[in-house]
Amino acid sequence: MSIALLPMALVLLGGFGIGGLVLWLFSQAVPPTARQVQYSEPHVFTFENRELVATSPAAKQALSVEDLDEDIFHQLISRLSTLFPALQDRLDNAEQLKIPFTLHDLTSGGPISVAVTFDDRLLSVAVTGIAAPLSRKILVDHDRAKAANAELQVLRGTVETSPVAMWREDAGGNIDWVNKAYRDLVEDSEEGKNAAKWPIPRLFDSSPVACPGEQAVPKRSKLTKLSGDTDWFEIASYGRDESSLHYAFDANATVKAENSLRSYMQTLTQTFAYLPTGLAIFDKSRQLVLFNPALMELTSLRPEWLSARPTLYDFLNQLRESRMIPERKDFCDWRKKIAQLEQSAQDGTYGETWTLPNGQIYRVTGRPHPEGAIAFLIENITAEMSLTRKFRQELELSQSLFDSIPEAIAIFGPEGVVTMANAAYTALWGSDPMSEVAQISVVDAIKQWQEKTMPSPIWGDLRDFSVQMSERVEWSGMVTLNDGRAMICRVAPLPGNTTLVGFTEADAQVRETIVPMAVVPPNRARMSG
């Protein structure tokens, strides 16, 4: 959020009241002697071979109050160089050519100067504007004043170039100072025509003022621009003594993100509202953060209870008390099961079928979500399971009826693979195609039948018939087993291009009737015709 810029602003501004604070520093840095009216009489020091040979009265007085070393020339030039950084270089150049020069500067106490002149072997240094040019304290204090002035310029530049709008209010709530960013906002707002007037227009209502050491509570505020667009800001206010300093941080990105998130959540909520699957999402701390209406319908949990953001443990325990979860008599085992459930959901491996005491069946799955969240999906599969059970019962009944038929029957699908066979078929041929790992094709079945019967042209006809897609009619023929039993082989087309092949043992009377009346396969009949 934009409020994160606040520590930087505080460090840059050093609190608030920048102008007053720096002026106070500047006034403290310059001692009273430097702020008094400047001496009209200069301090003149005359040297020969850098040895002091004469002084003016003011210079003599300065010498009498200072604890100096014997090298007065060096001390004087060294301390004056603090005020005039170019003094030493100018002096070194001027001594060779005996060229006089003067240096000037302007301090908070007034103008100061140092003049260097030459007279044959004599060198004179005249200091004007400094009460005690040899004093170590006055020079150090002057350094402090210059540093404070430099700091003032840095702080002024920092405040003016800051992208954060700032303004200060007095004890009466009146604006008495603003920075450039604030003025720019005024010019670009509906109050732009009053930007050059003072007091400058107020753009924002102040937020609660935080005392020194407290954390400010930002207040959201909007500003309408001349273009009609709206900008959003977060206002933070800090107070000290009887004034307060206020910051307006750009919150457009934050507001846009919040609106996008709100729109996204509304879309999700509307989508989840129509899902028949119950949805419960728990955050990293395992508190419920999102649920849909289907969850309430499936679990019978009250919406106000779910809206209170229960924990995952409370949620499951409430389901247990409502008998909406498989009952576990051992409470310790129940607690252990919850821990396993949570861990499995985090890994994305949780999936169980809950059979409830009321006969309903739920499928429950757990899935991991970003940032440590987990989601549980609850589906009511009672109808699905009932249909599956009913279908299984019908299949078992059909198989039982199929097995009760005395005719040995095998059903071949459109691909020519055995899809069904009854008990009579298994007993006759000694193998159960349904228990084989590999699929049994019509070719595999014919090979097995040929091994246990006398040679017969029926098998070739049967092979051709199984791949025939049109003009299929039922036909039959006689085959003889290796043990001498005669079998009637019946071949009949079924819907979906499936084929029934049945074998029935023929008695003597039937054999006498069947053999001369054996039905010729359709393809062979066409060939003979």
Secondary structure elements and pairings:
Layout: H1 6-13, H2 18-29, H3 32-35, E1 43-48, E2 51-55, H4 57-64, H5 72-83, H6 87-97, E3 101-107, E4 110-119, E5 122-128, H7 136-161, E6 165-169, E7 175-178, H8 180-187, E8 209-210, E9 219-224, E10 230-240, E11 243-250, H9 252-273, E12 278-282, E13 288-291, H10 293-299, H11 303-307, H12 312-321, H13 331-347, E14 351-355, E15 361-368, E16 374-380, H14 382-403, E17 408-412, E18 418-421, H15 423-429, H16 442-451, H17 458-467, E19 475-480, E20 486-494, E21 498-505, H18 508-514, H19 522-528
InterPro entries: PAS, PAS-like_dom_sf
Protein name: Diguanylate cyclase
Organism: Litoreibacter roseus
Instruction: Assess the beta-strand content as a share of residues.
Output: 15-25%
Look at the structure and give the mean pLDDT. Answer: 79
The count of strands amounts to 21
**What is the oligomeric state here?**
single chain
Shape: elongated
Give the class from helix and strand content and strand pairing: alpha+beta
**How far apart are the termini?**
95 Å
Architecture overview:
The protein is an alpha+beta fold. Helices cover 40% and strands 25% of the residues. Strands 6, 7, 8, 9, 10 and 11 form a six-stranded mixed β-sheet that branches. A five-stranded antiparallel β-sheet has the order 2-1-5-4-3. Helix 2 (18-29) packs antiparallel against helix 7 (136-161), helix 5 packs parallel to helix 7 and helix 16 (442-451) packs antiparallel against helix 17 (458-467). The radius of gyration is 53 Å and the shape is elongated.
Please sum up the structure shown.
By secondary structure, this protein is an alpha+beta fold.
